[in-house]
Amino acid sequence: MSDHTIRFRLNGEEREVRVPATARLIDLVRDICGLTGTKEGCSVGVCGACSVLVDGELLSGCLVPALFVDGASVTTVEGIATGTLTPLQEAFITEGGFQCGICTPGQIVAATALLCAHPRPTDDLISEWMMGNLCRCTGYHGIVRAIKKAARA
Amino acid sequence: MSYEWHDAATWSEALALLERHADDATVVAGSTAFTLLYRQGLIRPGHVVALRRISDAARIDADAHGGLSIGAMATHSAVASSERVRRSWPELADAVSTVATIRVRNQATLGGSVAHADPASDAPVMLAALAAQAVVVSGSGATKRRVPVDEIFVDTFTTSLAPTELIHSIEVPARPAGARAVYRKFTLRSVDDYATVSVGALADLGGGTVNALRVFLGGVGPTPMRARSVERALIGGPADGRRFAEAAALARDEVDPIDDARGSADYKREMARVWTERALRSLVEIS
Fold first, then answer.
1. C-alpha distance from residue B130 to each of B124, B174, B215 (Å)
2. Which domain does B203 fall in, by range?
3. Cβ–Cβ of A132/B104 closer than 8 Å?
4. Tens of pLDDT along B137-188?
5. Confidence class of residue B1 from pLDDT cuts 50, 70 and 90?
6. What are the strands of the beta sheet with B197-204, ordered from one edge?
7. Close Cβ partners of A65 (under 8 Å, ≥ 6 residues apart)
8. Which residues share a beta bridge with B216?
9. Quick one: pLDDT at residue B287?
10. Using the beta-carbon criterion (under 8 Å), do B7 and A129 form an inter-chain contact?
């Protein structure tokens, strides 16, 4: 059994916390740091609800050991907007990019990573990046419209 | 239940930890497989030896013979986007790009994929087809041996490596002049799934003759399966579609699939034939 002290940045804020070796990144952000925007869906890295950025890279919070982010910079859905909503978040609202909302944090984080890597993504790139973020309401058209609108903004 | 987590800073430190805890240690690279196996209760190690702090373990370099040397800790995304890989073996970059989703490719490593020995994984099949070798370290880290990747896989999730050995890097030979390679993956339900069957092939078709050919299949046996009868039937003869179709039928008897959610064993045998033929035909279409 081992507990470890890790230091990392969470949405721009320095954190120093004790974590058990078995904790996952999603346990760290939700249970230890209290940021519950990141959702746990499938728990096996398939559904994308727990999408987070670690040093800008899109990862599954349910697959990454919490210890992996020692020294890293973590961005969750709470850290996407800085004061006002981003054009992408606004577009999710105006284009109806969500229905029940459970997948939305993951969709926003994944789409933010997409637009960061490809500010003007092709349809193929949107599919490639977003196919791992499942929407059980099947509201995919609104999500894709929102991404395209944000890319034009 | 929990484990003691060790962040090894060097290969020799990791190897020393494995020597000390050999029967009770699990090696963690990207941790995609480890997290799942642990949480499902399928493994309960007392010690975890994590390799992520080892410097240069993710380097992608040229090896001494003009081939690629890919550090075991290089992620699938890093391999897929590497200019060096794209220049010499774009088919390898394409093959690792078929793995799951971007999130998984950002986390899962090439060395981990080989060491995990999941017969439905993509990288092992293509690496075997390309005659890649694993550089395996043991002892203090100075002892190195090279193992052909296809000789690492002995059964599902089982390798020929000793518990006190680690995959340091993967070497892919320099691209021979005129080499053609292809990776075809067939998924039944969604494209981020594991393969029902996948085919990796490497060929020299110079002068319209099959001068050399390697064919490996994934998802249809306990390891990546080499289709030797297909290779033997074609090598030395003309590279034409009719012969490819006949030879591909031999793949049915080279594989050893099981019934599961990705198809019945019979169906997978048939898909092994179909996708072997498609892979072979696409070798000809590549100019």
1. 10, 10, 9
2. 180-285
3. yes
4. 999 888 899 999 999 999 999 999 999 999 999 999 999 999 999 999 999 9
5. low
6. B179-186, B197-204, B212-218, B225-226
7. A21, A23, A24, A25, B5, B28, B31, B35, B50
8. B200, B226
9. 54
10. no
CB contact under 8 A, B31 and A48: no
Stated pTM of the model: 0.97
Span B259-286, average pLDDT? 96
Q: What percentage of residues in chain A have a pLDDT greater than 90?
A: 97
The answer to whether residue A116 neighbours chain B at the CB level (below 8 Å) is: no
- Is position B188 within any domain? yes
Residues of A in contact with B5 (CB under 8 A): 2, 4, 21, 65, 67
Angle CA B255–B256–B262, to nearest 5: 95
Using the structure block, give the residue that is written with the tokens 């320099």: B174
A42 CB within 8 Å of a chain B CB = no
Instruction: Tell whether B44 lies on the interface with A, counting CB pairs under 8 A.
Output: no
State the ipTM, two decimals: 0.97
| B164 and B186 co-located in one domain | no
Q: B31, B102, B192: best mutation site toward chain A, by most A Cβ within 10 Å?
A: B102
Judgement on whether residues B273 and B188 belong to the same structural domain of the protein: yes
**CATH code of the domain occupying A87-152:** 1.10.150.120
Contact between A32 and A71 under an 8 Å Cβ cutoff? The reply is: no
Q: Given an 8 Å threshold on Cβ–Cβ distance, is A60 in contact with B39?
A: no
What is the second-level CATH architecture of the domain A3-77? Answer: Roll (3.10)
Do B35 and B79 belong to one domain? no
Who among A4, A20, A63 is closest to B32 (CB)?
A63
Instruction: Specify the number of domains making up chain B.
Output: 3
Burial label for B282, CB within 10 Å (0-12, 13-18, 19+), is middle
Strand ranges inside A48-134, DSSP E: 51-54, 57-60, 73-75
B109 and B141 both lie in a single domain = yes
Distance from C-alpha of B25 to C-alpha of B11, rounded to nearest angstrom: 15
Residue of B nearest to A49 (CA): B103
B52/A128 CB distance under 8 A: no
Best B17, B51, B103 member to test A by mutation, with max A CBs in 10 Å, is B103
